[in-house]
Amino acid sequence: MPKMKDILTEEEQLEISRLRIRMLRADSIFEGKKIKNKILSIIRSAEKRYYDELEKEKKISV
Predict the structure, then answer these.
(1) Among 5, 15, 25, 29, which residue carries the largest CB count within 10 Å?
(2) C-beta of residue 14 within 8 angstroms of C-beta of residue 22
């Protein structure tokens, strides 16, 4: 299983880093939770893209 750093694009990694800094500076728990959800959605979309690519490669090799 690859690590998340291998799956994420450079742009996604930078966006997550920016959001993590914003989360640390958040004034409220609600704001921090919204930022955390954005981070998780970026990670989920990267995972989905990775598994879709793997599935396509399997179909091609068969």
Answers:
(1) 15
(2) no
Q: Is 16 left (phi over 0), alpha (psi -120 to 50) or beta?
A: alpha
| 4-52 pLDDT per residue, tens | 888 999 999 999 999 999 999 999 999 999 999 999 999 999 999 999 9
- Tokens encoding 36: 């955390």
Quick check: helix, strand or coil at residue 26?
Answer: coil
Secondary element (H or E) of residue 2: none
Residue 14: what residue type? Answer: L
Q: Which of 17, 7, 19 is nearest to 46 (CA)?
A: 7
Q: What pTM did the predictor assign?
A: 0.86
